[in-house]
Amino acid sequence: MGSEKSYADWIAIDWGTSNLRAWAMRGNKAVADAGSDKGMGSLEPAAFEGALLEVIEPWLGAGRMPVVACGMVGARQGWVEAPYATVPCQPVSLNVVRPKVTDARLDVAILPGLCQTSPADVMRGEETQIAGYLAEVPDFDGVLCMPGTHTKWVQISAGEVVSFRTYMTGELFALISVQSVLRHSVDDAWDGDAFQTAVRDGMADPQALAGRFFSLRAESLLAAPGPGVARARLSGLLIGSELAAAKPYWLGQRITLLGAGRLAGLYADALAAEGAMIDTADVTSATLRGLHAAYQLLKEAP
């Protein structure tokens, strides 16, 4: 790794609430990556520039380095607020915000998120992943499911985000499994059959969710179910109720799962059980393609 000017053409940044991820880029190829745990949630506005330099300093030369950033860095509590673009719209545009910097080597552009007024909804970071997916599949017309702490269902048509809905399913699972009475019943094992049964229960009877949750606790006291049953059923009930609510987005639609890891696999299993036809795409690759698409827009702008 060197600090010469030619090492990187530009730098891609995905700056979330908990972590900062950075890539040194030559064109559309990452030649190095780095990161830190200094996410938006742990920084005051004046500390962002220093946190960025800690990670990318080895890639800087003497001249100004274009840095394109997405995610919570542009939130109201972030480095500087990047106002939302309102759907329907293209996922990335030239409406970036440039924070004031003291290091003359930095030329930072922060991408805006997207918002929807009715029903009210917002996203930051996912719009860049969407742009990256569309860069690879420009004729896509359908729905992206983006599993995460706050899962997004996104309707795409003619290269634009038409509408989207966010579900706090992942955060609810974390809160209930760690902070509620169910923490005494949920272990670290997993039962796939129990998950699929619970998905069907959650879809068929979402209004009974609160009662079914307490039954998980009661069953662990009275019937001693096997390892992983309570955890799998809690997850299945939550995802099943989400699928019931999000049915207008996925029923009969072309669906791509844009995610990674175990959670994306659970959504794939749950949707496949309902007969949905699903493609998958890697979220990290999509993020880099989306940041590159934004970099190209900015580079070519008059």
Strand order of the largest sheet: 3-2-1-4-6
Largest sheet: 5 strands, mixed
Strand element count: 13
Order of helices and strands: EEEHEEEEEHEEEHHHHHEHEH
| Name of the top-level CATH class of the largest domain | Alpha Beta
CATH topology descriptor of the largest domain: Nucleotidyltransferase, domain 5
The general outline is globular
Give start-end ranges of low-pLDDT stretches.
none
What is the end-to-end distance?
33 Å
Oligomer class: single chain
Number of helices: 9
User: Which class best fits the helix and strand makeup?
Assistant: alpha/beta
Average pLDDT works out at 95
Strand content: 15-25%
Based on the coordinates given, report the CATH architecture of the largest domain: 2-Layer Sandwich
The amount of helix comes to 25-40%
